[in-house]
Amino acid sequence: MTARILVVDDVPANLKLLEARLVAEYFDVLTASDGRSALAVCENTPVDLVLLDIMMPDMDGFEVCERLKANNRTTHIPVVMVTALDQPSDRVRGLKAGADDFLTKPVNDLQLMSRVKSLVRLKNVSDELRLRAQTAHTIGLQELARADRPDEPGNVLLVDGRASSQERLLRALKPIAEVAVISDPQAALFEAAENSFDLVIVNANFDDYDPLRLCSQLRSLERTRFIPILLVTEQGSEEMIVRALELGVTDYIMRPVDPNELVARSLTQIRRKHCNDQLRASVQHTIELAITDDLTGLHNRRYLDSHLKLLIDRARARGRPLSICITDIDRFKLVNDTHGHDAGDEVLREFARRVRATVRGADLACRFGGEEFVIVMPDTTPEMAAIVAERLRLMVEGRAFGISQGDTVLNVTASLGIATLRPGDDTPEALLKRADTALYEAKNNGRNRVVAAAA
Ligand code: GH3
Ligand code: MG
């Protein structure tokens, strides 16, 4: 892992020391000896992490951190405060300023490296998400998630083997989160997978269970992979902390737990989770827009082209049938010519609704172009496909289409061509071509009918 790290300290010897250690681990290191130049570096250079001294003349570390977090261009850079101060109140002050973690001077090598690596890893994930969301934003699809939204309450799962500490932690977290408490770590895994928590707090106090097992299981399950984990550990359990961070545990706190520190750390994680969720949703939304037809909300041709190949490969691999149906509205040009293009659009939307109502959940319905639609039906024999197509034909013919101008209703019919995957020789193009030929035949034979391609 390589990353660019900015070390900020007013004492040259401290700068040299940290720089040497980080360079030895192949990090790219920048240095600054006061708050203002640190801010300038972050503003002008991509920095992946800041190691920030607190006690500095002129502008102290708390203020530097606050300014970094208040600036949209630097708010996402993780900040680790390096401090000789070791009072819980200083930590809380730092966390409130937006710091992601603390290292106490003299800095322990193991802690330095595990902290830096874990925060850089987290930042890489957020960066990737931000980049994708930015692309969505650039192509004008939607507003980029904003960092300055008001806090939403978090959902926290507290996994704790002891009733007394459960009660204490619960009391501390009450004001900022909905908390579910569970004593059994294995049950906790299911609980986490079934619900959507913003944070899992694991108290390493089980009698005969390794808490890191739960952490690693949470990291490997698809459903829980992105949930932040806060580990509560004993003083002096550095080994466990290093292993935990390597496993992907997001943060830790030492016993005796200071309630304010617990709240501040939890809020940091909950905020980051909300922000990443929003970025992820925005990426998802962009993908959906790219594969959805605007007018009807069905999948578009681009999606069909890529997905049909997968469905065909899967059907082949499993030795299952697969059928497709192409349908085209009859004399649709007449609708446009007589009632206008908007009325035509309304007919297309209603037609799409009827297509959707005809097919099963596993079927893929797409607008192929203009007034042509394709339905892909996995696990469907030619006989079943003929029944589905006939049902759709009747759904269209059976009830007139209303359009919003006055009381006008239109009688609409459609022609349909179906084809079924042949053993061995069907590509998506070949399958579509055979269905299209059948459709052409349906048109030629008088429209408003279903024709099946020869097997
Ligand atoms: P056929 O029975 O042979 O299919 O006759 P048709 O009139 O349906 O076929 P043709 O291909 O001649 O005309 C299709 C028409 O569909 C022409 C085109 O303007 C119209 N069309 C394509 N896309 C849209 C759309 O998004 N909205 C509207 N309103 N019309 C569309
Ligand atoms: Mg047509």
TrEMBL record:
SUPFAM superfamilies recorded: CheY-like (SSF52172), Nucleotide cyclase (SSF55073)
GO molecular function, one term: diguanylate cyclase activity
Keyword annotations from UniProtKB, A to Z: Phosphoprotein
Pfam families according to UniProt: GGDEF, Response_reg
Residues of the Response regulatory domain: 4-120, 155-270
Gene Ontology CC terms, in alphabetical order: plasma membrane
EC number annotated for this UniProt entry: 2.7.7.65
Name of the featured protein: diguanylate cyclase
Taxonomic source organism: Sinorhizobium fredii (strain NBRC 101917 / NGR234)
Lineage start: Bacteria, Pseudomonadati, Pseudomonadota, Alphaproteobacteria, Hyphomicrobiales
